[in-house]
Amino acid sequence: MTINTDLELIALTKRYGGTVAVDAIAHHFKTGVYACLLGPSGCGKSSTLRMIAGHESVSDGSVVLGGRDISHLAPAKRGTAMMFQNYALFPHLSVRDNVAFSLRMAGEDKPTRDKRAMEMLELVEMTALADRIPDQLSGGQQQRVALARALITRPQVLLLDEPLSALDPFLRIRMRAELKRLQRELGISFIHVTHGQDEALALADEIIVMNNAKIEQAGPAREVFNSPKTAFVARFMGGHNVLQMPQGHIALRSDQMRITDAQTGRMEGQVTAIEYQGAHVALTAQVAGGQEITALLPDAQFFDNPSEPGQTIGIDWEDRVAHPVLA
Amino acid sequence: MSKQITAWLQAAPMAFVLLGFLVAPIIMIAIVSFWGATEYSIYPTFQLDNYEFLFSSPVTYTVFLNTFKYTAITWIITLLIGFSVAYFLAFEVRSLKWQIGLFLLCTIPFWTSNIIRMISWIPFLGRNGLANSALISMGVIDEPLEWLLFSDFSVILAFVHLYTLFMVVPIFNSMMRIDRSLIEAARDNGASGWQTLRHVIMPLCKPGVMIGTIFVTTLVMGDFITVRFMSGSQRANVGRLISNDISLLQYPSASATAVVLLCTVLIVIALLLRLVDIRKEL
């Protein structure tokens, strides 16, 4: 039996003066989960993370980790560790001393500190650069050091604040694989704040979509993508058309749309844009009522029967792909 | 090629100003320091008499020692006050508006001249001054304290008063450049307030401390007027040695002392720069 390190947010609230940044949210993170807090900027995801970390005071509600209320403890006493957006490495200390910083603060002697720090650096494959200072490292290397520094405190939950946003796109994809590998190896919970839905889908066991200080939807990545509950989630996750129909809003996955001849489809539309994306072609058409529909077609299928902007086409889908969503 | 000429032309005005008002006078002083002097005249020659006299006189060593003493004590006090004030402004005052406001408040004393600020201490510290009468009426002392005015105490007090801001400004500047997430990262790693100060803030303020140190050191070592006024002409430093020579029209001797002082200050700064690399701060 493993130790319970479930993290629970209970009516967690953050107010700055009159404005509410986080509005009484509740969520239960299971032990060993990779969770992504996803949302547009200003939705309250960072404030939530900072309240869990203890860098922002809790206005109301509580944070419970492993059955212990940690809402008002010092950051280092919570069993959490935070990795900052810009990594926040100490510029005057070597990589090794950065990683060993928490041990030094706890009064460990130098040989122990150095040994543990080197173990951590081994975990992130940075032992060769242990004597460098942060300015001499690339973004990806700095991130590894920041990870090692956070993990050396043996946290039960690792909090990551937009960890990949400072990296170039190529490195971002490599580092996210690395994060996932580490999380699996260590078996601790990672809570990762991001505004990139592709990042969240690639990494998360569980996605928590936030908007306007509230949780819009939470669930496994596939569920959130496949059956968005609200129009906001469908639009934010991308890959969906949200249509206003007489019976209410529906979400349709772009890759489930079919293009037919005019008059044979459910709807008739005029092609407004064609975008070649390599494996796919994104075709955008305007239908009655000024709504736009994007269909993501496999390139072979499109080029077998190509259409031109301005052409009238029919759009069709199967009943099972239409998800009713709340406005 | 023409680009290079433009660059030279752009640098020229400043170069001429520096040449005319900094380099030339120093060369002049260096030349005159080898001249000879009688009671009523000075004559161009090349002799080492001035330096010989300077280095053989015990007064020189006492006065240099006294100058170092003033510099060291003033440095320690301005550093302590300057660091605390800068820390308060940078980390305790949260809003930028208040930071700027309080910072400007610090500069208000600079609206009056150095000498007026210095002299205004005299009625305060004098035998029957405010400080003594207040202490007597409070019953802390029975007789007026003699060491309050015209003493090392009053000299250093004036130095600290005059030059603390030169310490505050560069340290404040260093502190404002410290990324606030570093403080949070230290806290996240279990550092207490003191540990954060000791292991994160202080090392990152070193360049600012060093710039402030250079300001204070050069100002105190080159001063003569503060020592004259605040010690009632009872204490001496190198600056006073030079100014006395000048008032006696002993320009060669004054020049020699000035050259020695200049070299001393340059050596001190060179030593300081070896300790900390301030280039990244500029």
From TrEMBL, chain A:
GO MF annotations for this entry?
Answer: ATP binding; ATP hydrolysis activity; transmembrane transporter activity
GO aspect biological process, one term? quaternary ammonium group transport
State a single Pfam family of this protein: ABC_tran
**Membrane-crossing segments per the record:** none
Q: List each copy of the ABC transporter domain by range.
A: 7-237
Q: Does the keyword Coiled coil apply?
A: no
Checking PANTHER family in the record gives: SPERMIDINE/PUTRESCINE IMPORT ATP-BINDING PROTEIN POTA (PTHR42781), SPERMIDINE_PUTRESCINE IMPORT ATP-BINDING PROTEIN POTA (PTHR42781:SF4)
Q: What is this protein called?
A: Spermidine/putrescine ABC transporter ATPase
Organism per entry: Actibacterium atlanticum
From TrEMBL, chain B:
Q: Where are the transmembrane segments?
A: 12-35, 72-90, 102-124, 147-172, 208-231, 251-273
Domain of life assignment: Bacteria
Q: Report if keyword Transmembrane is assigned.
A: yes
Keyword Nucleotide-binding found: no
InterPro entries reported in the protein's UniProt record: MetI-like (IPR000515), MetI-like_sf (IPR035906)
Q: Which UniProt keywords apply?
A: Cell membrane, Membrane, Transmembrane, Transmembrane helix, Transport
Instruction: Mention any one GO cellular component term assigned to this protein in its UniProt record.
Output: plasma membrane
Primary location class: membrane
Please cite one Gene Ontology biological process associated with this protein: transmembrane transport
Q: Which residues form the ABC transmembrane type-1 domain?
A: 64-272
SUPFAM superfamilies noted in UniProt: MetI-like (SSF161098)
* Compartments where located: Cell membrane
Q: How does it sit in the membrane?
A: Multi-pass membrane protein
Pfam family example for this protein? BPD_transp_1
Q: So what family is this one in?
A: Belongs to the binding-protein-dependent transport system permease family. CysTW subfamily.
Q: What is this protein called?
A: Binding-protein-dependent transport systems inner membrane component
